[in-house]
Amino acid sequence: MSELLQDSAPDTPSDRLPLALARRTMRLSMYEGGFAMFFINWTSGSVLTGYALHLGASDTALGLIASVPLLAQAISPVAAWLAARRGSRRATAVLCAVVGRGLWLLTPLLAVAPLPGEGRAAALLAVVAVSSLFIAANGALWTAWMGDVVPWKERGRYFGLRTGVLGVVGTLANLLAGFWLDRVAAPLNFQVVLTVAAVMGLLAAVLLTRHDEPGLSGTPLRMRRTISLPLGDPNFRRLLAFAVYWQFAVLIAAPFVLPYFLTHLHMSYVQIAIWGTISAVAAFFLAPTWGRLSDRVGNKPVLAISTFLAGTLLPVSWMVASPGMLWPIWISAVVDALVWSAINPGIFNLSLASTPVSNRAAFIAVFSAATGLSGFVGGLLSGPLLELYRAVTPPNGAWTPYHWLFITSGVFRMLAWALLRRVEENGAWRTRALLSETRQRIRPGRQRALYPWKVRPRPPKRHDHREP
After folding, report:
1. Cβ distance 163 to 287 under 8 Å?
2. Which residue numbers delimit the Major facilitator superfamily (MFS) profile domain (predicted)?
3. Residues 232, 238, 239, 244, CA torsion sign
4. Please, what's the largest Cα pairwise distance for the chain?
5. How big is the CA angle at 164 (ends 411 and 48), to the nearest 5 degrees?
6. How far apart are CA 296 and CA 12, in angstroms?
7. How far apart are the C-alpha atoms of 270 and 179, rounded to whole Å?
8. Torsional class of 218: left (φ above 0), alpha (ψ -120 to 50), beta (otherwise)
9. Multiple choice CATH, 19-425, 1.20.1250.20, 3.30.2130.30, 3.40.640.10, 3.40.50.720
């Protein structure tokens, strides 16, 4: 047993992966994620938005195309239940990845399909919806799986580094796609990119078969118990309330950021790719820093600060830009990296820290399903809300309906910390303590603190079934 991970939690299952196998899987996950980034970036973002616009999608259709993948996350509890019955998450995750990504081979055909009116955009929405069911199931299983592989003391550093590295890979993918889309006429440009994306996604699924998997902990749950067990945990419910609210707040505006870039600011695909490049390069340096900070002070204070910035600095940097003045957009790319390189790993790690080792897949599946449903509702409302703002905003002015939408989402995002503060996390600092210490580091000549106890971390609160 000496070769087992020495820093694992006391309640870690006895069939935890040996250290060598865990390290091997963590390295493989980097390569697998690299291939997956081509699929993710080329079946979403500016590529998907541009293709949908080419197929004649309306504002409502754009909102649905962006939010339907979140609705598909409702299938996650079913995937967790099936994986528990089979005794393996790997087999189910790989199957879902292959089917979900392979379906994208159909999307290039839609450009020449003999469908009337918005029929092509509706067909694209159907492919996105069905594919997303399998991809969401794969994502929920992968999260629980890797949560058991990566030592809990290293999660912040590892997933922060992984986020930064994959951001660079995503940058390369965006630059290649932007260069191609600007120089080749539609629909051929979209057809080639979407085909290659599907192939890269399938290659990532092949690498996923090489990952090692710890044995499942706990006894298989009935389908009803798969849902009721997580919802019976008070702290998990508090985390769920925050995450559900946050996803809704983000999706109020998220579907229309890239349409705003393309249609109002008249940015080219290469310019959008450069925006993504700036964000990814910044995230490469910021994500590991956020990860180390989260390991030291906890995920809660990091999330409280970054979600507030995502509701203030980010929307403002979009709104002050204009078609002839794009420099705020380049600043927004850095802000985008600053907030999301903290938020995405932070929510991921907090969800792992707030769930038990036993039956973790059920907790993650319910988390994925609930946040997916709330995100879908936000995206579903975003299109009609934009139409409403169009009706009350004078045309051809500097202030657009997009600005109202960004303000609406920004206000919701700014208030997310109120729900986050109710979540318990072992050893997490208070946000006030982190801010106090940050101020003292910026101004070291001042007295360290008026009340020294405010800059000390709270003593850890232990939860019997969670990792310390």
Report:
1. yes
2. 190-468
3. positive
4. 73
5. 65
6. 21
7. 6
8. left
9. 1.20.1250.20
Report the alpha-carbon distance of residue 414 to residue 398 in Å, rounded: 25
Q: What is the pTM assigned to this prediction?
A: 0.71
Nearest-angstrom CA–CA distance, 35 and 200: 6
For the chain, the average pLDDT equals 84
Give first-to-last CA distance, the chain, whole Å: 21
List of long-range contacts for 55-58, beta carbons under 8 Å, 24+ apart:
55/110, 55/111, 55/118, 55/120, 55/121, 55/124, 56/117, 56/118, 56/120, 56/121, 57/118, 57/121, 57/124, 58/118, 58/121, 58/383
- Amino acid (1-letter code) at residue 98: V
Structure tokens at 416: 């997310």
Domain spans, the chain: 19-425
- Asked if 371 and 243 touch (Cβ cutoff 8 Å), the reply is yes
Cα separation, 250 vs 355, in Å, equals 24
Task: Tell me the three state secondary structure of residue 322.
Answer: strand
- Coil vs helix vs strand at 146: helix
d(CA 408, CA 405): 5
Which of 280, 288, 247 is CA-nearest to residue 154?
A: 288
pLDDT tens per residue, range 133-181? 999 888 878 877 887 888 877 877 888 788 778 888 988 898 899 999 9
